[in-house]
Amino acid sequence: MGTDPATLVAAFDSGDVDMNYETAPDFADVLTGLGLKQYETVTSGTIVARMNVNNAPYDDKRVRNAVQLAVDNLTVLELGFNGAGLIGENHHVCPIHPEYAPLPVVSRDVEKANALMAEAGQMDFVHEITSLDNGYDLNTGDAIGAQLRDAGFNVKRTVMPGSTFWNDWTKYPFSLTQWAARPLGVQVLALAYRSGAAWNESGYANPEFDAMLDEALTIVDFEKRRELMALIEANLQDSGVLVQPYWRKAFIHSGPNVENLTVRPDLIQDLTAVWLSA
Question: What is the mean pLDDT of the chain?
Fold first, then answer.
């Protein structure tokens, strides 16, 4: 069907398809309006606006924390993903992960953000936010940029097609990246934030964080792992390397004749127990 959701709408409307793999949130109401069944679930899939610590001024924790405090994640969820998800907490561990530990809410604080940015001497710096040129990457990047501008910071938006963006995705000073769902919080942390990890796009390198994560990876009991995970989450959140605004909800739709269909957080579809009614 291609990437245009309107093509899928037409296919459903004409009866050419019985179900889809995933529905874009802003088209969910359209498909439901056709009389289709809607299925939804919260996932640990997300999008991250990360700052790379190997690029000035993001080597300064005050700058990174100022950016975090200037962004209201609820507003970004509403504007970037049509409100279809849960608010993120800037530490890349999801409430559906078994070892997730809730932390105190850190609310938007423009006054504190400005104070930190001024203290770092970077009020005149232009933050170039790079993202893909379509979908929720574009919308989320625009929403974060608007929040930073509203806080009094200078912002430049740069958008690229995937054929260009992915060539240097780990090197941009400030950019957005989609992260797929993973069953455990420790999995994504080991891949994305451990010192020297292959997909560590923020360049974060903290021996204390690494040591705690190494220990967490040895704890099989997720209840016990949660105690350590609270410290790991707080460490990453406080580092300021990421604005992680939301966790995506996933939607799929089917015709009324599709029976026993469910949607999983990993979007794997097992159709062995699904059938079409007459």
Answer: 95
Q: Look up the pTM and report it.
A: 0.90
Grouping H, G, I as helix, E, B as strand and the rest as coil, residue 154 is strand
With contact defined as beta carbons under 8 Å apart, do 252 and 39 qualify? Answer: yes
- Position of tokens 């400005």? 114
Helices (H), the chain: 5-13, 28-32, 61-70, 73-81, 110-119, 135-150, 162-165, 185-192, 207-216, 222-239
Confidence of residue 1 (pLDDT cuts 50, 70, 90): confident
Could you tell me if 157 and 141 are in contact, meaning their C-beta atoms sit under 8 angstroms apart? yes
The H or E element spanning position 253 is strand 246-254
What confidence tens digit (pLDDT) does each residue in 202-236 have? Answer: 999 999 999 999 999 999 999 999 999 999 999 99
Give percent above pLDDT 90 in the chain: 91
Give yes or no for a cis peptide into 57 (omega within 30° of 0): yes
* Amino acid, res. 113: A
The CA distance from 222 to 228, in Å, is 10
From the CB of residue 56, how many other CB atoms can be counted at a distance below 10 Å? Answer: 11
Helices and strands (H and E) in the chain: how many: 10, 9
Structure tokens at 257: 């004749």
Half-sphere exposure of 157 (CA within 13 A, CB side): 17
* Torsion from C-alpha of 52, 53, 57, 62, nearest 10 degrees: 110
